[in-house]
Design a protein that fits this description.
It is built from 3 helices and 11 strands. It has 2 domains: about 180 residues, no CATH class; about 70 residues, no CATH class. With about 260 residues, it is mainly beta. The protein has a 5-stranded antiparallel β-sheet with strand order 4-5-6-7-8, with no helix packed on it. Strands 1-2-3 form a 3-stranded antiparallel β-sheet, with no helix packed on it. A 3-stranded antiparallel β-sheet has the order 9-10-11, with no helix packed on it. About 10% of the residues lie in helices and about 30% in strands.
Length: about 260
């Protein structure tokens, strides 16, 4: 199976999930590659030689716009299937995708959405999702890898076992790319339904024209009741009172807080 493996992730070596384009890179047309390099050097690159000229030069993530297909590898999400649709929800970004499992008329061509207009069907144990009507606000990453509103997606989510999905997405955009191209990686279940991503906050402080520092905070499981002991029937004399101790059956995981900072120059 192609895509990101546990060994590749553990090695912490940059890898590409693109499996059918030269060099594992997005096959941009010349004009689009030039535009992507402009964004990269104005905002997202390691060597900032310019300044953003408009809101379209900064990451759409700062505007709370993630969009498809980046949502699929942006943050943890939940998948729920009903009798006639698939629902995907992202707690971190308050995003959702509702994918009907039936034929229906497409939206008018002039209607463009961050996550597009999706229709799905099952092909054996593979969920196939066809998406049109995407707008051009989202990026594939935080470095300016953009697309146009002509982009369409065909996603294939193959269930390998109860905790593993092989994900492939073929991207077509005749305005920006020289050919369709495909990303492939593995989705692994990391959390039980008892865990929740509750808060993510970030703040950037400018130190100079070329330097800034970002401060990040993440809080999980704020409303869980995992306060002490190995069950919720302990008392104030417990040796582990007010010390979260991991998973408590029937209640969930302990509260967690993570802090971080990043210096950009």
């Amino acid at each position: 199976m192609t895509g990101w493996t546990d060994a590749q992730l553990a090695a912490r070596v940059p890898i590409s999930s693109i499996i059918d384009a030269p060099g594992g890179r997005i096959p941009y047309q010349p004009w689009a590659l030039k535009r992507r390099e402009e964004i990269f050097h104005r905002y997202g690159g390691d060597d900032i030689t310019g300044a953003p000229q408009s809101v379209r030069d900064v990451s759409s993530e700062l505007l709370c716009v993630i969009g498809a297909p980046r949502l699929m590898f942006f943050a943890d999400f939940q998948i729920v299937q009903t009798s006639d649709q698939i629902v995907m929800t992202w707690e971190r970004s308050s995003d959702f995708r509702i994918i009907p499992l039936r034929d229906r008329p497409r939206l008018p061509a002039g209607v463009k959405l961050h996550n597009g207009d999706s229709i799905g069907h099952w092909d054996g144990n593979t969920l196939v999702i066809d998406t049109t009507n995407l707008n051009d606000w989202s990026w594939f990453d935080s470095k300016g890898s953009f697309h146009t509103d002509a982009m369409t997606l065909v996603e294939r989510l193959t269930v390998l076992d109860p905790k593993t999905i092989d994900y492939k997405v073929t991207v077509t955009d005749p305005k920006a790319f020289t050919q369709p191209w495909t990303m492939n990686f593995t989705l692994k279940q990391r959390h039980t339904p008892a865990e929740h991503y509750e808060i993510y906050e970030t703040k950037f402080f400018s130190l100079s024209a070329e330097r800034k520092i970002g401060v990040f905070a993440e809080a999980f499981n704020l409303f869980n009741t995992a306060n002490f002991g190995n069950s919720y029937t302990g008392n104030g004399r417990s040796a582990t009172f007010r010390q979260p101790t991991g998973f408590i059956p029937g209640i969930g995981y302990a509260r967690q807080l993570q802090l971080g900072a990043r210096f950009l120059f």
